[in-house]
Specification:
Blueprint: H1 2-19, H2 22-39, H3 45-65, H4 68-88, H5 93-98, H6 101-111, H7 116-134, H8 137-146, H9 153-165, H10 175-184, H11 188-201
Helix pairs in contact: 1-2, 1-4, 2-4, 3-4, 7-8, 7-9
């Protein structure tokens, strides 16, 4: 049931994005709240506690600002593109698998197994290119490529960490960037240069 709620939320959000119906916007927000509450029991105690705390704190802030339901709706709707991206991006692995891309990439990576530096650079570089667009979905796709290689866990962890976290500094599809720029009214075009420098330093 929980999965259907999340998929319905994503589907209705995509419809609302194109048709721009105000009532549908509130339906999507309501579905997001129901999906959040429905998913909480499945989470570990600490993430569940943090999730409820942050959600409650955000709602309290909006009420304190006097924006009420409209402000809460805007706040949730702002983060929905990221939720949909994280939820739906792994589906890209289906056409990649049926198209034979996994086998081709796996063959290339097997050839690089004897050259750890090139293999490491390939994994981090691919994650660096995919993460800004696919967010966490990029990790899922790369994991599909590497699943059969049985790489050492230390190498995989470092490759994922370096390749993925660099995008956090500059990609507008990460909450760390999009929310801050939105609330500070800073255009992304003015920020991207600084973000890329921070990403390179990382």
């Amino acid at each position: 049931m929980r999965s259907y709620l999340i998929l319905a939320m994503c589907g209705l959000y995509l419809i609302q994005y194109f048709v721009e119906l105000n009532w549908l916007r509130y339906v999507v927000v309501a579905l997001a709240l129901i999906a959040f509450v429905g998913s909480a029991p499945k989470a570990d105690p600490l993430p569940r506690l943090l999730g409820f705390f942050m959600m409650g704190f955000g709602i309290a802030l909006e009420i304190g600002k006097g924006t009420g339901v409209e402000g809460i709706s805007d706040g949730l709707f702002l983060i929905l593109p990221l939720l949909c991206l994280i939820t739906l991006a792994p589906l890209l692995s289906i056409p990649l698998r049926f198209g034979g891309y996994f086998e081709a990439v796996a063959l290339l990576l097997k050839k690089l197994m004897q050259q750890p530096r090139k293999l490491y650079a390939g994994i981090t570089g691919t994650l660096f290119l995919l993460s800004p667009v696919l967010n966490l979905g990029s990790v899922r796709i790369i994991n599909e490529f590497l699943d059969e290689l049985k790489l050492p866990s230390m190498m995989s962890a470092k490759s994922y960490l370096v390749g993925f976290t660099t995008a956090i500094f500059w990609s507008p599809y990460f909450a760390s960037v999009s929310l801050v720029l939105h609330y500070l009214h800073v255009p992304f075009t003015q920020y991207i240069g600084y973000g890329m420098v921070l990403s390179s330093l990382h």
